[in-house]
């Protein structure tokens, strides 16, 4: 890889669950240039030792001076913690330092979008919505949108493993979504590779708000479930009945976060799907993987490498707006592990999202609208896995509950 940005990469939160994956992956590609950072200098130094980096930094986001000092000799910052506002983005972009933001907060991401002109004038690039959801969901939505030639409606489904230990920011964000105002829309069912048919519930993921703007799609809804059906039904039943309103205060949110941090029900496998519709055309792109934190870190690292290679022009973009990252799901599959990508166009399996031209996919969609759904073979072979029987039992589609 030819790199045009030869300065150091500062990973804020570099010793956390996501940041440590980012540091390890980047250290393979740009050895000696990755700088772990966080509130604990000792933890950052230990992370630097593990990846063979000569430098670590103490960065406390409550103390702007520590961030300003750490930005010396830095060309790119990977933000693997959630400050909740645009303070890091503004500090970086104003001085020409590029940014990859792993945050999931809608308010933080939209505040950073406003800095597009600042970034362009300084020659810095920022990539937002980097992770699983938002992140891979955005990329799957763009793929499905392109396959139908421009969607009027996109449904995104996210089923996460409840058995994985998540970081404090992820737990806090989930609690906020559960106790906050209920999003519009009702539950739906989605057929997912390896998991079968699942009921998913509207949830305020930031991807749906960004996709309405970046893809110019009027209706985008993201729905959520955990891999445990019992836990999903209990949580959303409590939300529907109003029980969770009692936890809206700061003390209640902390109590719920403590429960989620201590109790792990389910596995570490997750599944994502984006279904795009335009009239009688429909396309669903699905991804299954294990280890949400690990995959989030890998997505962030690939985005960082794209910036370092000069494949992201100056300005602020969400991940689905970066053409050089459109094939990221396939790259994750090629890297090994439990990731798998399956693509369906009106219930008919295509060979591979990477090799089916849009014109051919639309031809398949047009044929299937007249002939009805045909038999389909799973593309799990792309990842070397057998097809799941439940996923092959009927056409992949999202239907009202």
Automatic annotation (TrEMBL):
Stretches for region Disordered: 366-401
Domain Saccharopine dehydrogenase NADP binding: 9-120
Compositionally biased intervals (Low complexity): 377-401
Xref: PANTHER family: CARBOXYNORSPERMIDINE SYNTHASE
Name recorded for this polypeptide: Saccharopine dehydrogenase
Species of provenance: Oerskovia enterophila
């Amino acid at each position: 890889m030819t790199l045009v940005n030869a300065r150091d990469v500062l990973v804020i939160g570099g010793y956390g669950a996501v940041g440590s994956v980012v540091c390890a992956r980047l250290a393979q590609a740009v050895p000696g240039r990755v700088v772990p950072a966080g509130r604990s200098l000792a933890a950052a130094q230990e992370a630097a030792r593990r990846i063979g980096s000569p430098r670590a930094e103490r960065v406390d986001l409550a103390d702007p001076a520590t961030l300003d000092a750490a930005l010396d000799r830095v060309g790119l910052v990977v933000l693997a913690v959630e400050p909740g506002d645009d303070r890091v983005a503004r500090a970086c972009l104003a001085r020409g330092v590029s940014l990859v933001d792993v945050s999931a907060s809608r308010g933080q991401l939209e505040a950073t979008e406003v800095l597009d002109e600042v970034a362009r004038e300084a020659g810095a690039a920022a990539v937002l919505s980097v992770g699983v959801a938002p992140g891979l969901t955005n990329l799957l939505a763009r793929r499905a949108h392109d396959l139908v030639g421009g969607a009027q409606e996109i449904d995104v489904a996210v089923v996460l493993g409840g058995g994985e230990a998540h970081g404090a920011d992820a737990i806090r964000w989930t609690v906020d979504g559960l106790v906050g105002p209920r999003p519009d829309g009702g539950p739906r069912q989605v057929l997912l590779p390896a998991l079968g048919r699942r009921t998913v519930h509207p949830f305020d993921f930031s991807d749906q708000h960004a996709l309405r703007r970046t893809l110019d799609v009027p209706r985008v809804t993201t729905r959520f479930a955990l891999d445990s059906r019992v836990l999903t039904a209990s949580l959303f039943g409590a939300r529907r009945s109003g029980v969770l309103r009692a936890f809206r205060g700061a003390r209640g949110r902390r109590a719920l976060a403590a429960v989620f941090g201590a109790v792990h029900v389910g596995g570490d496998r997750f599944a994502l799907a984006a279904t795009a519709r335009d009239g009688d055309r429909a396309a669903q792109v699905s991804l299954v993987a294990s280890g949400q934190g690990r995959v989030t870190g890998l997505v962030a690292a690939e985005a960082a490498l794209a910036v370092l290679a000069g494949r992201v022009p100056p300005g602020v973009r969400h991940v689905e707006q970066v053409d050089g990252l459109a094939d990221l799901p396939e790259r994750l599959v090629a890297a090994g592990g439990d990731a798998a990508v399956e693509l369906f166009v009106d219930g008919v399996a295509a060979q591979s999202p990477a090799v089916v031209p849009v014109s051919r996919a639309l031809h398949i969609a047009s044929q299937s609208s007249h002939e009805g759904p045909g038999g389909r073979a799973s593309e799990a072979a792309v990842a070397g896995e057998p097809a799941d029987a439940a996923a092959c039992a009927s056409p992949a589609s999202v239907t009202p509950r």
